[in-house]
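Lab meeting prep.
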Amino acid sequence: MRFILMKQFARHFFLFVILLFSSNTYANDLKNNASPYLAMHGNDPVNWMQWNKATLAKAKKENKIILVSIGYFSCHWCHVMQRESYQSKSIAALLNKDYIAVKVDRELNPVLDKRLIEFVQITTGSAGWPLNVFLTPDAYPLVGATYMPRDNFATVLTRLQKRWKTDAQALGDMAKNRNETLTNMLETQERTSSNKSIATAVNHLQQVMMKNADSLQGGFGNRKFPSTPQLASLLALSKQKKNKNIDEFLQLTLNQMARKGLHDDIGGGFYRYTVDPAWDIPHFEKMLYTNALMPLLYFDAAEHYNNPEYRQVALETLHFVIESMSGKGNAYISSLSAVDNKNEEGGFYLWTRQQLANILNKQELDLAYKIWGLNQTNELPAGNLPRRDDSLAELAKKMSKPVKIFEKDINLIRNKLKAYRNKHRGLPRDTKLLASQNGMLLGAFAKGVSYDQSLYNHGDRLSAFLQNLWNGKQLRKSAADATSGTLDDYAAVAWGLLSWGKATGNKKATQTGLAIAKIAWQRFYKHGIWSETTHSLLPKGIKLSHLQDGAIPSAEFFLLSASQLSEDADLRRNISAVLGNSTRSIETDPYAYASIIGFSIGYR
C-alpha cells in the first residue's frame, strides 16, 4: 500500500520541490521545559514555540508557514542539526522573520509524530529523525525532510518563503487537497473490510516475513532493528506448530541480538538498532521501550526453546534498566543518549587497547581479547565495541574451563569495566517518566518476577507509580504532564497493571488496569474505528479499523492483550469484534500488523 501511495504522489511532490527550487545568550518558550529534549533547545536563537492552539492561531493570524521540527533527546542527528542549524544566527534570523518555528518531543506527542512521519514517508520515500515538516497556517503539510546540512536548510527556507510570498493561495490549496486525498486513500485502504477474520492473514504473514528474513545474519533488512512485533508473532506461530525454518531463523536472530553489537555485553541492555546487516555497529542510544520489550521476547523464547541463555539475557536486561534507567518516583526514564558527556558518539561503550591494559591485569586482558575481539585496531574513533560470536557456555568449552568458573572470570572483568566507565564517563539522560513505556516495563517485570523475586519490589513500586497517574477518569501521559494520555498510554498502562495483578495477585493493580482498559475502549474505539488521540490539532485526523506496529507493538495489540487478561465479558466481546474484521491493508501488508495477527494466533 505504501509503495502504491508513493508512486501516486511522488510526481506531485517533486513538482512541488521544483517549484521551490526554480522559481550570544538567548531564551525562548522552551527554556526550563520539563522535557529534556525541548529544554536543550531553550537557549537556541530560534524563537521556538510549542505545539498548541495558541501557536496555530498565531500562524494563522500572521499568515506564516509553520516549521514543525520533531526529535527526541537521544537522537544523534537531532543534536547535529541543532548544532549546525538551530544554533546558527543566520538560520535563526530566517526562521524568526518568516516562520512560526515549533519544536516537538516525539515521545510526548506520538500521534502528531506518526501523522507527519506518514506524510514524509509517502511523499519522499523515507522518513526519520530529526523530522522537519513545513505546514500551512491551517496546519496542512506542505513538504518535509529529515536531517539537512545548514546550507541546504537555508536554501529551503529562503526559497519556500519566496514561493509562499507570491503563491500562498495556490500552495495552501494544493496542501489541503493533497492532505484530504492522502487521508481518504489511507482510510479507504485500511478500513475496507475483506469479510474475513484477522486470523486468515497468518499464512501470508509467515510468507512475507520469511521472504524478508536474513537467513545468514538473522533479522530483517540492512539496518538491523530488534523488530519485536514481528519476531514475537513468529514465535507465536512456532508455538502453534513447529516449523524448522522459523525456529532456525528465530534462534539465529536471538543469538545475534544477544551476543553481537545490538547488546551491551558489559553493562547490559540493548541499543536501538545496528547500522549494518551483521549486527556489528549500533546506533548507541538505549531506549526504555526497547529494554522493556526485549525481555518479553527472550522470556518467551527461553520457555519455548528451553534455553537458559535467553532467560539470562532477559533478566540481565531488566537489571540493567533498574541500575541505569531509574528515575524519580519509582519509575524509569525514557532513554540514554548515544553521545557521551564528551560529545563522542558511543564513547561510553568503546575501548582502546591502552585503556583496557590500564584497567585489567594481564590474564584478564588476554581473556577480554579472546572473548570480545578487543585487540584489533580501533574500528571507531573512540575504540572497539565488545561483542562475541558464541554463548558463554560454548566459550567455556573452547577454553576448557568449567562454565561457573568461566562466568565468574567474565563477570569480574565486566565489573571492572563498568566501574571504570561509570567513574570516568557519563551519559546524558532523558529523564521523562512516560506512562506508556513504564506500562510496558511493568509487563516485563510481571513476566520476570517468577524467575527472580528481587524484581518484586521494583515492580510493585512501579505499579503504584502508574496507578497514581490515573484519577479515575483520566490517565496522565507522564509524571510531569497533566495532559490526558493517548491510546498508546491507556493501552500499555492497562496491560502492564493487569499483567502485574495476574502475576502477583495485586488486586488494586488489577482493578485499576481494568478501569483504564474500559475507558480506553469507550474513548478511543467507536463503531469499529480507532482514534489514537482525543485532542489532535491537525486537520481531519485519520481514523482506522486497525493500527500498525512500529518499533513498538500497536496500541491496539496492547489493549486487546489487556482485555484478554481482564477476563471481562464485555471486553472479550470487543476482542472478538476486532479480530473478526480484517482489512485489505492487513492482507496486503501483514508485516506492518504483525502484533495483532500474532495475537490472533494464540487467542482463545
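Slide two material, second protein:
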Amino acid sequence: MKHISIICLLTISCHQALKNSSAESLKQELQAVEQAFSDASAQKGFYPAMLDVAADDIALFDSGDTVLHDMAFIKENVRKYPDGTRPPFTITWKAEKIEVAASGDLGYTYGWYTMTIKDSQGRDKTTKGLYNSVWKKINGVWKLVMD
C-alpha cells in the first residue's frame, strides 16, 4: 500500500510538472507571435501586419465608441495605401503580461505601445499608451480576436 501511495504522488507530481511546462511553452509561443506582429507593423505598416494575424471575426475597438466585427475595416485601410505606401503613423508595442488559458487555445496580452505620427507640419509626434489584445488558437495558429 505504501508503494501505491508513492507511485500516485510521483504520477501527480510529474503530471503537474508537465502541465506547468506546457503552460510556459504556450506563453512563449504567444509572446513570439505578438512580437512578430509588432515587428511586422514597424516594417510594413500596422494594417498589413494585422491582416496577417487577425481572425476573420475580429472585434476592433476604434478611437470612438464603435466596435467593428470583421476584416472589412482592416482591408479598407490596406487598400488606402497601395503599392507599399504607408499610413502617416508607425506603431510598435511590447507585451508585459501574457496569459494562456489552461485549455491552451485562448490567451491575452497587454503592455505598452509607442505610436509616432506626422503632424500637419511633417514633424514626428510620439504618444505612448497601454494596449490589450485577445488571441485564440484557430486550427493550431494564434489569431487576434480582439484589439
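Talking points for slide two:
The first strand starts at residue 54 and ends at 61.
The beta strands are 54-61, 67-68, 89-100, 106-118, 124-138, 141-146.
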